[in-house]
Amino acid sequence: QTFDTSVRRNWGPGDRFRCMIEDVWWLGQIESHNQLSPDFPDSLFMCFRVRWDNGEYEFMSPWDLEPVDENRLPVEVGGAVPVLDEELKATLYQPKTEEWPRGDRDASCRRIIAGLEQVMGLAIA
């Protein structure tokens, strides 16, 4: 889901973004779109050269970037903003019914847990 959402955003040079690193949001701007490796010209992995608001440069992937929330900006340029619990939850995977056998996620999870418990009960585990 994160990958699909990030690709649909069509990030490009000049776009402002925020990135969650540990428990804070850091802000920056995309400087350019590059090829990390000529062997994989269409790869999006680390394809953006970004300039952080603190002046540092780095290469990032689209799935590392989030749109800037204009209501939650750092007090000073180059500073960070704490990640709120609801922001963290919004970034988590949201399971869909059709992704689980017979559409029953709970039953599938119970079956997986039971299997893992059996494996962990083996002497070699």
UniProtKB/TrEMBL annotation:
Which InterPro entries is this protein grouped with? Answer: Bromo_WD_repeat, BRWD/PHIP_AD
Q: Name one GO biological process term.
A: cytoskeleton organization
- Record-linked Pfam families: BRWD_AD (PF25313)
Q: BRWD/PHIP ancillary-like domain: which residues? A: 1-71
Its Gene Ontology cellular component terms are: nucleus
Question: Protein name, please?
Answer: Bromodomain and WD repeat-containing protein 3
